[in-house]
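JOB MANIFEST
job_type = single_chain_structure
chain_count = 1
residues = 208
[input]
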Amino acid sequence: MAYIVDYSYINQSNLSFGTSSFKSEITENDLVENNFLTAIYRKQNYSYPKFFKMDNLSKIGFLNAELLLSHFPEVENRKNAGVICFNRISSLTTDKNFENTIIDSNNYYPSPALFVYTLPNIETGEICIRHKFMGESSFYVTEHFNSKYIADIVEDSLKFNDIILSGWSDFVNSQIKSLMFLVSKDKSEDSELFDSQNIEKIFKSLFL
């Protein structure tokens, strides 16, 4: 069985982010000098300079993981902790940005800084590096948000991992809808099942 320890979210549509226990909002003043993701980073006073080199997909994963694990430091540095993420466009945004650097033969300047992020599983890798997670690291691309598929994949992974960070990051036309769960094989007093019904319920409550 799999159980929800907590979840975090980022919703650009209403400029909000947080976890199950707190909500914060980005103001217009926060956005004056920063884009949405950088504004969250600044508002939370994080200190991880590599953040600024990441593509947006990796930044989303980084911020969600920070929001979750700041409340659960005891799960950091776990050898049996994994990261499994999902979305429906892979690394398409970064792919297009990289394509723009090579499409014109007269202005050909392939960017290594962009190329390194043209795989979606770089997001899960960045989280593992940051938190020294040594369990499974996987990224799945699906046609749409599929709560049953997510639940089945994560529950199967918990046969070999004690803790899983699992999230969905929808990043289309610069609008971000991202949800990440901290999932455990151990049941606590207040935990809910990490099943299709509960995943769907939380997703709809945040984004629909």
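[summary]
The chain has a mean pLDDT of 92.
The longest helix spans residues 56-69.
exit_status = 0
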